Each structure stands twice: as C-alpha cells, then as structure tokens.
Amino acid sequence: MTAGPPSITGKRERTKQANRAAILEAAREVFADIGFGAATVRDVVRGTDLATGTFYNYFPDKESVLVALLEESAGEARQRVRAARRQARTVDAFVRDGFRAYFEYLIEDPVTSQLIARNAGTIRAMFDEPSLVAGTEELAEDLRAGVAAGLLPEHDVEYMAAAMVGAAVEIGARMLNSPAPDPERASAFVSQLFIAGLRQTR
C-alpha cells in the first residue's frame, strides 16, 4: 500500500497531532477540575470536538493520558532544573537554584498546578514512570559531576538524589495546596536541609 501525496500525508499528520493535543488539553482541565480518580474517558472527550471512539486511536485508557501529561510537564521541569544546577558554582547554589527552578515551574501554569495538587497521591504512586525516574537519574549524574569537579563533597549519590527528588515532590505538592504558594519559601526551607547534609559529609 502506497502513501498518498505529500500534501495529503502532511495534512493527515497535522490532524493527528491536533487531535492528540486536544485530548491532552481537555484531560489536563478535567483532571485538574474533578481529579483523575473521578474522571472518565467520556469526561475528557466532552472537552473536545472529537467522537469517543477517536480517543482510542490515540490512547488506550485515561491512565495513558495522565502519563503523557506527566511526561510533558516532567520533561520541561527537568530541563529547567538541570540548567539551574549546571550554572551553579557553589554547593548552596547547586541545591537552592535547582529546587527554586522546580518550584517556580510548578506555579507557572495554574491548570498544571491544580492538576498536580489535586492528583498528588496518584502521581506519587507512579514514581516508576520513566519520565519521573529520569529526573532522579539526571540529578544523580549532576551530583557525580559536582563531586568530580570538587564542587560537592563525597557522599552517597544515589541516596541523595532519591532524597532530593522525593523532598521536591512532597514539598511541591504541599506548596501548591497552600493558600498562597511561595516557591521562594519552599526552596529556602528544603535547601537548608540538604545543604547542611552535604556539608556534614565533608
């Protein structure tokens, strides 16, 4: 079977991308509004101009939609956090600037913020998802590089990376659920804990 002319193939691909994006945007709103547990595929589809059957051309279930949303947001967060860490020239900056970049990202988009806050328990249970595991692995790499460069003291990199990511997720969720989310306050608090811990390993 041969493909159609480039113009038709290109239009088809654009339609696919637009449909997938519409499903993700609708799901973001629905999961933020009523929560992942209460939401159904029908709720998501109602937020688009698509037929219910079209949903299944792109996603097998609502879980896969949430995973796609998390991959999207986690990828952006990881880029910002890693850039902040790699510009650091001191232990304090390495820790503080990384946490601040993450917490600032969380409050940038109100819908994404509400999605994370409302579904924190579900997201917490998905810690084995590749997009979330990648953040811990990248932090471990940056910690090793910091040790090799003499910026950071020798320490158990694997445990430190797991602890820092876990703290960021938990404190980020608590911050989003507070009446006035304050990334500076959140980053100052958690940074003190880890900066002190790293200094004690010298």
Strand-helix topology:
Layout: H1 6-34, H2 41-46, H3 52-55, H4 62-86, H5 91-108, H6 110-118, H7 120-124, H8 130-148, H9 157-176, H10 183-200
Q: Key features?
A:
single chain; 202 residues; Tetracycline Repressor, domain 2; 2 domains; elongated
Describe the structure.
The chain is mainly alpha-helical and 202 residues long. It folds into 2 domains: 1-60, Homeodomain-like (Arc Repressor Mutant, subunit A, Orthogonal Bundle); 69-200, Tetracycline Repressor, domain 2 (Orthogonal Bundle). It is 76% helix and 0% strand. Helix 1 (6-34) packs across helix 4. The chain is elongated, with a radius of gyration of 20 Å.
Q: Ranges with pLDDT <50 over ≥5 residues? A: none
| Average pLDDT | 91
CATH architecture of the largest domain: Orthogonal Bundle
CATH H-level superfamily title of the largest domain: Tetracycline Repressor, domain 2
- Biggest sheet: strands, sense, closure? none
Radius of gyration (CA) equals 20 Å
Number of strands: 0
Structural class: mainly alpha
End-to-end separation in angstroms reads 66 Å
User: How much helix is in the residues?
Assistant: over 70%
Briefly note the CATH topology name of the largest domain: Tetracycline Repressor, domain 2
Rough shape?
Answer: elongated
User: How many domain regions?
Assistant: 2
Beta-strand percent range: under 5%
Assigned CATH class of the largest domain: Mainly Alpha
Question: What's the helix-strand series?
Answer: HHHHHHHHHH
Count every helix, treating DSSP H or I runs of 4 or more residues as helices.
10
